[in-house]
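step: validate -> pass
step: tokenize input -> pass
step: predict -> running
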Amino acid sequence: MHIDTGNTGFMLLCSSLVMLMTPGLAFFYGGLVGRKNVLGIMIQSFVSMGWTTVLWYAFGYSLCFSGDVGGIIGNLDMAFLRGVDLSTPSPINDTIPIIVFVAYQMMFAIITPALITGAFTNRVTFKAYMWFLTAWLVFVYFPFVHMVWGGGILQKWGVLDFAGGIVVHNIAGMAALASVLYIGKRKVPDRGPHSIPLVALGTGLLWFGWYGFNAGSEFRVDAVTASAFLNTDIAASFAAVTWLMVDWMISKKPKFLGLLTGAVAGLATVTPAAGYVSPTTAVLIGIISGVVCYFAVALKNKLSLDDALDVWGVHGVGGLLGIILLGVFASVAFNPTAGVNGLLSGNTSFFLKQLGAGLLSSVWAFFFTYAMLWIIDRFTPVRVEEASEERGLDEALHGEKAYLEEEGYAAR
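step: predict -> pass
step: emit ->
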């Protein structure tokens, strides 16, 4: 194996950027909840960094990228990274050691289930969450990584997903919707967000890390890498401004939280398309995302669904929207090697494949998640007791407080 030090160094940097997104998500979610539940939501992101890594090393990587069983899942030939040594090349780019590929893909596995936690904040026991994290990775995330990126049925079918519109955002968002419907509303109203500056810090870390998330998914440094990088920023920026403007027109005030949420919606929506479309298309994706995701969240509010931190409206709808828009706007002019032309260039079949894959992933993630929560609830309570919800999960479940001077500050 000939190691390209430039590509390898770049992928190590991108792996680090994607790792940073999970603490960023913890800050983003932590700021959005009330003061009594900050640690309860943040630990759900941070514990994924530990436990998902354990599962990834033990069998997760192997189930995603080793062998093939029915086009749905891999096998256990590479469990505990068996056969991985310094001379083993990456399956995507043989100038990069497989060790780097394992690390990069692991960072995706860490953040994806953590995205779901924003939906059921303030009302899930930690023990049930650990069971959920494990089962969801095994029955939803690992199969879709294999199907889309690991040589499975969707990849063979010709479905494209540059950096995780299906594999990350859509399945997490649909899992969030299923979680909300199964677990139900919070009994104790949350006065959050308690710290919009924390949300801003989280957004900044997510946005920064997203360059590694999207540009790194080319797995080498070339013009497509640069295009994916630029498209990521353009879509996020246009979505942020669009959300701000729509919100401003409706609420009569320019909301900082709206700007931040819009940016994340744009980032989620451009993710599947980043390396297959032009910068001009990224502008359109950003604008469409800002409008559609805003009204998806408005619909959720109208239906009184307690998706606390808008995971479905931002990630579920954004991910599905990005997959469909890729089917419309894909252009070989911006990815001659791996890309295809979309519906606008007359390729109806590719558009229909993208649409079908988006619907399949939505249905699978929704029903598997709902069933999983029902099964977990049979042997350990999923929902916290109302007294714990009243007290706040930080103290009730974890015996800690985010703000030790809370009573003092409240009195001032």
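step: describe -> Confidence is low (pLDDT under 50) at residues 408-412.
step: cleanup -> pass
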